[in-house]
Amino acid sequence: MREPHWHPETAEMGYVIDGDARLTILAPYSSHRLNTLELKNDDVYFVPRAYPHYIGNMGDVEVKILLFFDQAIVYDISYQSSFLAYSREVLAASFKYDSTQLPNVPFNRQNLFIKRVNP
In this protein, which residues make up the domain named Cupin type-1 (predicted)? Predict the structure, then answer.
């Protein structure tokens, strides 16, 4: 699974080359806030600029997606990195917790893709 993230200045379009995937998009200005699409070979999807989204593998083979962006340089902000951008004090105040109650969340760019684990 690709960690939930958004591209603040870039729209994303994808073409599924191989595999089955589920794409979920948070549409902030829609009455249907969460839009989930089941994707398979030859499907095309579009994620508007700054819409949070994530994609997960739903099958037994690796999902291969050809990505297109409307900008030459693509930036993304993941939920994990945005969480870690704030001090523990700010997060504690925001969530009404004592800062000692917050979990330690290590950030590692290698963790942007989360392996599927079936219970």
Answer: 1-103
CATH of the domain at 65: 2.60.120.10
Q: Using CA atoms in the order 103, 81, 52, 36, what is the torsion angle rounded to 10 degrees?
A: -50
Domain for residue 58, yes or no? yes
Say how far apart CA 19 and CA 34 lie, in whole Å: 22
Position 15 in a domain: yes
CA distance 49 to 51: 6
In sign, the C-alpha dihedral spanning 31, 24, 85, 76 is negative
What residues contact residue 5 under an 8 Å CB cut-off, 6+ apart? 52, 53, 54, 76, 77, 78, 79, 112
Total of domains in the chain: 1
Q: Which domain holds residue 33?
A: 2-74
DSSP state of 72: S
